[in-house]
Amino acid sequence: MNGQQLNRYANMVLVCNGDRRYGGEITLANNVLVGVLAGELKVVQAESTRHAAAGDTLLLPRNQPATLLKVPKDGVAYQAVMLTLPSALVQAYYTQHPPASAQPAAPEPLLFPSSPLLQSLFASLLPYLELRQPLPEKLLAGKITEALEILRSLDPHSDKVLANYTEPGKVNLVDFMEANYLFNLPLTTFSYLTGRSLTTFKRDFKKAFHLSPQRWLTHKRLARAHYQLATTSRKPVELYLEVGFENLAHFSFAFKKQFGYPPTALVRPKATPRPATG
């Protein structure tokens, strides 16, 4: 079973858990800190993949498309605590505690190995899920400050993620879509991340690719899946989430519609070990 635990009085704290592999695409409005308590978290971006095991912490940057794959490990269900770092509070903190030097923004997640400081932070957040009244604003600001101080003490490069408040500007549409087509995001999100209104995005897309965004995205994702199945030993159930499909049945239906045969037709049988000779 997979689920989330959230308290409306402390909605910056979220506990995720699941006893089977599951995932989904995200584009975060705020930076988010994820402490993996059990299982494994895999964060897939256009140019990189990060793996976080139990005890690890990931800092996920805002406005960066990613697929989060949550996987049970060694018979233990996946579980993680997520802390949202509201941009307004982060910016207020950096007004008082600016970085030592200006640094370019980092679009990739930062991985922090097991640390007593982070373990203590996440343990202190769990009781908030039992709140029966709104979390006091000063206490929230104090927790965010605590998180920022810990991250900066563990890795000075965290400023590259945390101190980035810029909004997406207009980018090359072809380059962006070729790098990010695997992410199953709404067209409104794609348009925002490319610095366009939805109407302008659709117009520019049709001009660049001569197809509607949805048809082009489906074709590209299925072509990627076909290549993976034909050239590796992976199975459909192992990759459908990574190529932008929400469930295996929809992926199999779309695959067969485009290629004329099901994805299982490309699965390679395992090689039979040769008997030892002597």
Give structural notes.
The protein is of the alpha+beta class. It folds into 2 domains: 2-162, Sandwich (Jelly Rolls), CATH 2.60.120; 173-266, Homeodomain-like (Arc Repressor Mutant, subunit A). The chain is 37% helix and 20% strand. The chain contains 10 helices and 10 strands. A 6-stranded antiparallel beta sheet has the order 1-2-9-4-7-10. β1 (2-6) and β2 (13-18) form a beta hairpin. α6 (187-193) packs across α7 (198-209) and α8 (213-231) crosses α10. The longest helix has 19 residues, at 213-231. The protein is globular, with a radius of gyration of 21 Å.
Structural key phrases:
single chain, 278 residues, alpha+beta, Jelly Rolls, Arc Repressor Mutant, subunit A, 4-stranded antiparallel beta sheet, 20% strand
Biggest beta sheet attributes: 6 strands, antiparallel
Mean pLDDT metric: 89
Q: Unreliable segments (pLDDT under 50, ≥5 consecutive)? A: none
Strand order of the largest sheet: 1-2-9-4-7-10
CATH class of the largest domain: Mainly Beta
Helicity range? 25-40%
Total of helices: 10
CATH topology of the largest domain: Jelly Rolls
Counted beta strands:
10
Q: How many structural domains are formed by the residues?
A: 2
**What CATH architecture label of the largest domain applies?**
Sandwich
Residues in β-strands, percent? 15-25%
Q: How many angstroms separate the termini?
A: 50 Å
- Shape, per Cα inertia axes: globular
